[in-house]
Amino acid sequence: MAIQNQRVSEIISRLKKEYPGAKTALRHADPLQLLIATVLSAQCTDERVNMVTERLFKKYRSVKDYAGADLKEFEGEIRSTGFYKNKARNIIGACKRIVEEFKGRVPDTMEALTSLPGVGRKTANLILSSGYGIVVGIVVDTHVRRLSQRLGLTKNDDPEKIEEDLMKLVHEKDWEVFSHLLIWHGRRICQAKKPLCPECIVHHLCPSYRKFYPKA
Q1: 144, pLDDT greater than 80
Q2: What percent of the chain has pLDDT over 90?
Q3: Tell me, what's the pLDDT at 51?
Q4: Which of 141, 161, 168, 211 is catalytic?
Q5: 122 catalytic, yes or no?
Q6: Structural contact between residues 144 and 192, judged by C-beta atoms closer than 8 angstroms
Q7: Which of 41, 43, 81, 197 is the most exposed place for a label (fewest CB within 10 A)?
Q8: What is the pLDDT of residue 127?
Q9: What is the pLDDT of residue 214?
Q10: 176, 129 contact by CB (below 8 A)
């Protein structure tokens, strides 16, 4: 475990130098906007979400605005993000609950956030860390899952089990930035279909390097 922790520390150190400004790419001004953007980001690119929320945030200014939104109209406004029916229902439902049970304020605990429609640990972790500066876990999205498996940091497929594995290997002070580093690296280098291993600054620390480039 000690050797593994040391390897993870070096990976993080190198990625920090490569991506010094790593943070969520979802544009937001407060926890409410981050909640909306994160729900919309499921199975959708951050670029597309930012295009949609640029218009959305001008129209809906408060949690009450979302709670009182017309479902069909709202579906049309977020249609391009995909799975728009579920997303619209979850966003409006979550905002209604925030108004009714949390006095109109997006809650700042894992338990309360995950009680909202459409909010799982990944979304809650992001809202807590990037919205409130409260870090209680590690965001595990598709990039983090893929890279964690390729780097040999987990053998699990379930996001919550992956998070448990990572929290044992990554120092708590790096929990927030770790996911952002992997996400940025996953988009630019360690891509799903064909990772660019020869251009990777941590390929010498990655057990998957020879699998993708056996003759390198």
Answers
A1: yes
A2: 94
A3: 98
A4: 141
A5: yes
A6: no
A7: 43
A8: 98
A9: 85
A10: yes
Q: Phi-psi region for residue 43, left (φ > 0), alpha (ψ -120 to 50) or beta?
A: left
Dist CA 206 CA 216 (whole Å): 13
Q: Dihedrals φ, ψ of 137, to 5°?
A: -170, -165
In the chain, the amino acid numbered 154 is T
Catalytic residue among 58, 70, 72, 122: 122
End-to-end CA distance of the chain: 28
Determine whether 141 is an active site residue: yes
For residue 11, CA distances in Å to 4, 14, 31, 106, 117 come to 11, 5, 30, 34, 36
Q: 160: which 2 tokens?
A: 């919550």
* Residue whose token pair is 């249609």: 79
String of DSSP letters for 15-47: HHHH-TT----S--SSHHHHHHHHHHTTTS-HH
Among candidates 137, 136, 135, 165, which has minimal Cα distance to 151? 165
Fill in the amino acid letter for 94. A
The answer to whether the CB of 25 falls within 8 A of the CB of 50 is yes
pLDDT of residue 210: 87
Q: Which amino acid is at 163?
A: E
